[in-house]
Amino acid sequence: MIRALWLFLLIAVMAFGAVTLFSLPGDITIALPGRELHTGIGGAVVFTFALAIVLMLLYRFISMFVAMPGEFTRWTQTRRRHKGFVALTRGLVAVAAGDAEDARRQTKKALALVGEPPLALLLAAQAAALDGDDEQAQRYYTQMLQSKDMEFLGLRGLYMAAARRGDNEQAISIAERALTLRPKTPWAINALFDLQSGKRAWESANAALDAASRAKLIDSSITKRRRAVLATAAAKDADARGDSAAALARAQEALNLAPGFAPAALIAAKHLSAQGRQWKAASLIETAWAQEPHPDLARAYAALKPEETAQSRARRLSALAGMNPDHPESRFLNAAVAISAGRLEDASEALRPLTDRFPVARVCLLMADIERGFGGDSLVAREWANRALRAPRDAQWVCSACARTTNEWSATCPHCHAFDALSWQSGARAVVEAMTPADETGELVPVDTTLYRDAVKAAEEPSRAIVPQQPPAAGTSPTPVPERPATPPTPREDEPAIFAPRAPDDPGPDYDEFAFDGDDSRQRRMGSW
Fold it and tell me: Is 34 inside any structural domain?
């Protein structure tokens, strides 16, 4: 309504102006060669306006005609650019969908229409990588380095290509350049840490860990753990080189971060003992045992005082086991001490909680040795030895990434090179290769000492216990151990057959088919059915 009112007022003003103009008295004479034109003031004004409009239209037409080639060129370029971006979009969709053929076709169209802008280079590189042409993809990623906006993306692509080729040196160089551009980029920091730790460059890996900590990419507890592992790995390398001072310093650094880390405690205890500081070495081992017992800790602890008597060593090891009494390794240690002293019932009681469900092979073999030590109960010993064939694997260093095992700790898995992936645990695979038929008796005997981890292999051979036995002191006699019969005794006809507890997959006789003859000690040694 208001706009209509304004339009009406404008028309009224123009009409008033025209009437006023035409009502003015006088005329205008235009003298031309040989002719004169006479008109009023109103007619002259209208003529002037008409002439101005004609001249403007003529100028517009001439300008448009002159600019037509350039406008056509710009229109053509705009149309090509539009088609090029459509091809880019379709090509990126094809790459995401894994359609290599369509991605390659759209890439050619995009490059032909728009040349090689950053997005076209990205599409071309991804299409080449999808098609398996790493050389062509690397060429496109290298061209991206010329663009400030695409340089980081080009570095990412070049790093991935180097990682696929296994060129770790080039991958490290690219990751370092990427980290210089963007210091808080997770993939560059993690790549540097993994690559440096994989090549055992512990100091460089520690620098990458510092960068991750500054960028707050990982939790402080994880950072602390990784520092301890790196320090232990450096201590292990120094120990291998014979640099005892550096090995001790780095091992102590690791223990300050993780006091219960057994590999670091073993290295530190070794060098402290060599310096005559057995009390300090014992303290480190005790601290580690209290947090996470390990059989190598017990062996190192036993070797701290080589001149002491067997009785003193047994008391010392029993005290060590008492620092974490419910742990399986503490029970193994108590059993080994009891066997070395000839206390087979105590050894059996120490192992009893480990025999309830799925005992590992070491438990089965130790129980078999204990039964042989009692003498005359060879059927039970034979059943325990047979059960060891189906028992889960004894504790080893197991990689959480690839599930493969190794007998020695290292900062990276020797198989898949995962960092800090080894943990001390039992496996579920039976150790069939660890047993072999013996002599004419036909018994199965262990041939893999890792099943025992220096524990007792037989009650009648106490010198093979986890406790290194020393010769008896002067004036003393060794503790007697029951002898094993030369041949297995033949059971009486009225004596019931006795079988050891079985695993769920053991196709042995059922409990209801047999009965005990009242020998409570034998039944206790059999464990729970």
Answer: yes
